[in-house]
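thread: overnight batch results

M.L. [08:02]
morning all. the overnight job finished for the chain we discussed friday. pasting input first so we're all looking at the same thing
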Amino acid sequence: MLVEKQIFLLALRLRLNRHIFLLLIFFYPAFLIAQRCDLKVLGRVQDSHNLDPIPFANVYFMEAHQGAVSDANGFFEIPVLCQGSYHVSVSHIGCQTRELYMTVKHDTTILLELEHHSQIMDELAVAASAIEEATTQEIMLIDAYEISQNADKNMANMLDNLAGVSTIKNGTNILLNPLLMAYTETG
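M.L. [08:03]
and the structure it wrote out:
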């Protein structure tokens, strides 16, 4: 009788273990997927020397393929990020790109410092002058009135009558000869 009882208890355990095993297999993927993906990362990018904000710096979380650009005060926000570890790249024109590795387990605020390599000038002077070239060539125009008066002519023939203009008639296209125009303007 004792042996039968032990066999019955063993069979019962195996059956329960099988059910527990099946339940674990069924719900295990839910435990894997139940990762928090509602985390927020806030931060500021600033100069490491004088602590001034660095506006419009790029902050990129490589594994998440998400990034942000800092505002005029150096602040940025990544609004939706999953819990995990990330390689972060911070870059800005005039600064050396900085890469770091961080683990995000909850909403996080970070301060990122870059070495800004800008050149500071005391003074910048810009001088300009207009060069007026005197031309002896008369400017000739074809206005709407002249076009309407010569409605029986084609446009290539009307352009051909202008001084310094040479046309090449090629079917329906009109090509102006720029070499002749350049020559007559300088010559």
